[in-house]
Amino acid sequence: MRKILASITLLLMTTYVFGQNSSGTPYSKEGFGLLPDTYGAYIGMGGVSAAMRDNYNINFMNPASYTALDSVRFYFQTGITGEYVDISSHKTHANYKVAQNGAVSMAFRAYKKLFMSFGILQRSNRGFDVYYTDVVRGDLSQFCTQQVEGSGGLNEAYLGAGYQLGKLSVGANVSYLFGKVDDRLTMMLLPMTSGYYLKTQTITQMSAALFTLGAQLPLNIGKKSNLTLGTSFNFGTPLHARRTFQAYKTSVASGNSILLNDEATENGTIFYPFRITTGASFQYDKRWLFAGDYTFQNMSQYEEFGTNKEYQNYHKVAIGSFYQPNAVGRYWWQRNQYMAGAYFTRSHLEFNLTDINTYGITIGSQIPVRLPYQELMLGIAVDLGMRGTHKNNQIMEKYVKLRINIAFKELWFMKAKIN
Amino acid sequence: MSIFWKIIIPSHLVIKPKSRNMRIFFIASFLLLLYACDNNLSTIGDDLISNENFIEVKRFVMEETSTIRLDSFPTSNVSSSSVSPLVMGKITDNLTGSIATIPYFQVAPQGFVSSITWENNCEFDSLTLTIPYLKTLAGDSTAFQTFELYRTKDKKYIQFDPYNPILCNIDSLQLGEKLATLTLYPQKDNIAQAYFKLNYDFGKTLFDLMRSRDPILEQINYPQFMEDFGALAIVPGKDNSLLMNIDPSNLKLKFHYHIGAVEGEDMTTYTWPCASGQNTNTLVNNTYAFTHINYDPTTKFEDITFKESKPFDDLKMAVIEGLNGFMTKIKVPFVADAAAYQTIMKAEIELRVNTDLQENNIPEPKNLGVYIITKDNYIKGLLTDMSGQNVIYGTLSQNSVDPNSKSYIIDITDYYVNLVEGGNPIVPEIYLLVGLPGSYYGLSDAPSYQIFTGNVANTLQRVILKEEPILSIYYSHYK
């Protein structure tokens, strides 16, 4: 019963995260929102993933890594990021807080060298709430306001498998991408004492299957040294999309509404472009690990309902390392992994001939906790970064993210075979 | 390092963990993280996110604006729920003309007074009529005003028809004998104390009817008494310069008399109030009182009628005024809302007021009534909001910087939107009639029979439009 209750609790928490705004940046207005620059279990190392494999974390970013998991364990992993952002332009300043990038995943060995994983993730984050105050055209003494709100993003439910072929591990995630992009507009005259105010809502719902393939090749290059090469990628995939547009105006005095538009565009597509992450990790003396990733996404191919949005391609470079004093030490701080990393992203966004770049440094720790019959890895990472610039009337965001990642082995969902 | 982590995570949880405590700790941490995110996304970015939506205003000068004058309107009460004030006095206005008003009313005896008999030693003293002053409407309150109280010759005309209990501004009665004259200095306190002292013989005759227990004073004979007695009328002097409201429910003849020796005895009284259905046990629902309004227009306004309006260009103005019944008729342009993703946010009419033509301290109303009419001035209804329940008025607004800059704003949004965007048959010709606040009555089987009620009958307020009204339509372009 306790396991069921705990599962329900975690599910509710995840649902809560999936149901709310996961971003507050106006940069997330474009496309299906912002893809997270750092994600997964290794955010403390700059978010590297391609060549990361261990027997504590489910690295769902590269399905080939599933083969590194313990063969007799059932894994349960969940994570969430809290983000605090200081956002500023050349003339004003604000801040917001959101929860984002919730993830729940599970993994187990299915058959000999075949490992399986499944879970649900947030793939992109979207949310903004911007006010405009303008003069009424034709009468410079009168004003109106507009509120532009957006929310939504892409989610992913995946089922993955990893298989070990000698030293080479290969894997694939079959994902169902789904989500919606919700844009709302409210227009009103000032002062709002009579007449109508207007609301519109554009909802784009999208879904499709996405295949992510991965491979990892661990190599012993010395007595104390191991090198792992890894890559994961998905091909460009058209998402089936349906867009609805509703507009109505409401009387200020009576509250009665008049429907103005109720339109639907069926059978459209949004093209999710090719994305690849390639990297390597180098482990020395079982104490040090260094890793690096390069991610590319061909966002110039991004299309919505047949219209190319003319984004630029996405590039990201991430490096990270951890130090573990003694993996089998008596004390937890000896078994702890002390992580640090950095990353640079040139996003797909360009405004006013200005690239919207992101720079970040990360620190973190993966704290091993031994419980009776259970093992747990508590990952905590802090991501300090900066997105955008004040140049050419752009917006700069300075953010701090706190990622909590919890990975259980045999906890709650598997009874011990030997007491 | 270990000390640092012991601070963050208590050592007893790490070194000797208990599974239940750990679960609570992790779940609590998760919940804390989640609920710390308040999702208040009032962010910035108006420079960044291009927003091509906008609101624009288009303005139209309504050149087909004219002034009309109501042929007649009720000045008696049209319902028992509220007693309409009467108007007494006279005013001469150089702009629109002179207005002389005569309130007519009837009184009803209220049975016999037990102490007044031939057997008792009753002595009639006097008969008075007090002025139940309500307020001054307009005019010169620093000049003496003279009023004469008459009894009418017509004795049947004042009788209201229970099935058509309406008397109008144009109705009048033939005056008979003069009963009293009153000259007063029309300050509030003076008026409150002022009264007509009626002809002694006239009062004595009525008193003797009471003393002799004349059957005409019995309740069953009240209608006969009223028919025989006729009505009373308060006629303003020709040099009067003031109009004021009086309260018909407090109009009453007051008999003053003594019982016993005059000296040393207190004077005592009884009254005959203004007759009503209630105190006469008759079928009418109102008070037996109305105001005759004699309007003598200036040359500029003399040809204006309900059907024959005078254009704004001819008058160089448009007028709304009470008592003489001026209203402004406006033709509103029909602007079809054809563009896609464009809609009307607000439509309003602005009536700009001429504040330079101030005479007789005639005030401006705070609100204006708006009637939807046909081209032929047939009333289709009052202007209302979308629900049809809430009447829309023109409201006075004043420029905070320039107090002399005043205008009335009529919000016609719902009505206009319904015409140009709604599914109802389109009526390309839209006419509005703007006057003092009020209502109207009409008979469905006699469309031409329509009467206006409200402030026009008992309020002297005036609006002079210095410009042709302007229709402002605010469009939002939202996609």
In short:
The complex is a heterodimer of chains A (419) and B (479). Chain A is mostly beta strands.
Q: Which features characterize this protein?
A:
heterodimer, A: 419 residues, mainly beta, Porin, 14-stranded antiparallel beta barrel, B: 479 residues, Jelly Rolls, 8-stranded antiparallel beta sheet
Polypeptide structure, described:
The complex is a heterodimer of chains A (about 425) and B (about 475). With about 425 residues, chain A is mostly beta strands. Chain A has a single domain, classed as Porin (Beta Barrel), CATH 2.40.160. Chain A has helices spanning about 1-20, 330-335, and strands at about 75-90, 95-110, 115-120, 125-135, 140-165, 170-190, 195-220, 225-235, 235-250, 255-270, 275-285, 290-295, 305, 305-310, 315-325, 335-350, 355-370, 375-390, 395-410. The mean pLDDT of chain A is about 90. By secondary structure, chain B is mainly β. Chain B has 3 domains: about 1-35; about 55-70 and about 305-475, Jelly Rolls (Sandwich); about 85-295, no CATH class. In chain B, about 15% of the residues lie in helices and about 40% in strands. Residues about 1-20 of chain B have low confidence and may be disordered. Classes of the chains: A mainly beta (about 425), B mainly beta (about 475).
